[in-house]
Amino acid sequence: MAVAHGSRDPRSAASIHALLDVVRSLRPELDVRGCFLDLCAPRLSDVLRGPSVVVPLLLGKAHHARVDVPAAVTESRVPAVVTDVLGPDPRLESAALRRLSEAGVDFGDSSLGVVLAGAGSSHAPANEAVAHVARRWARESGWAGVEAAFASIASPTVPEAIERLKARGASRIAVASWFLAPGLLPDKVASLAGDAVIARPLGDDVEVAQLVLDRYDEALARQTVAA
């Protein structure tokens, strides 16, 4: 049972279903079902009817992972194992870098500044996980600089991050997506980024699909050991 956040934007659910189609193609014998925490159907509480492994399609361990998913599973009153969230994992970074490449970004371009844009959370460790990725890219990429930025709650904002990169000599800006699917917050990021190159969300990247399956396998392995 793969559960995503949910959005009123129909592109979001379409992107999640496309990702799960890739998951099914990698493991056709597995019964893979998609659902959402809020804003679109089906809800997790509507589809959780028997023993299941619940994989949160969330990039970080913020409020939805720590509170909403466990609460929905408890409310269902059925035996279910909840896996770890998708991040942190190098495959998310690989997917985000591929999306940048698809958008025309050249690695090692010293004139380019890159913003790694995520949702933002009141849970500081979730924001720090994004910032940690940005710092590693800054060391390894050859770009003029890399800054994490957030669409809500946390700082810096996307315009603030862009100004920091320009102050370090970046003449062009690209925005990498730390979002799984399109929606309100990715659109907000794009609207604040001016003429920057915008990479699309991670979506149906094959490594993200493999990561979903690995979270499932890890949860089953832990359950077997515990038994």
UniProtKB/TrEMBL annotation:
Q: Which domain of life is it from?
A: Bacteria
Question: Which InterPro entries is this protein grouped with?
Answer: CbiX-like, Sirohydro_Cobaltochel/CbiX
Any keyword ATP-binding?
A: no
Gene3D superfamilies in the cross-refs = 3.40.50.1400
The record's annotation in PANTHER family points to: FERROCHELATASE CHE1 (PTHR33542:SF5), SIROHYDROCHLORIN FERROCHELATASE, CHLOROPLASTIC (PTHR33542)
UniProt KW keywords: Lyase, Metal-binding
Query: By what name is this protein known?
Result: Sirohydrochlorin chelatase
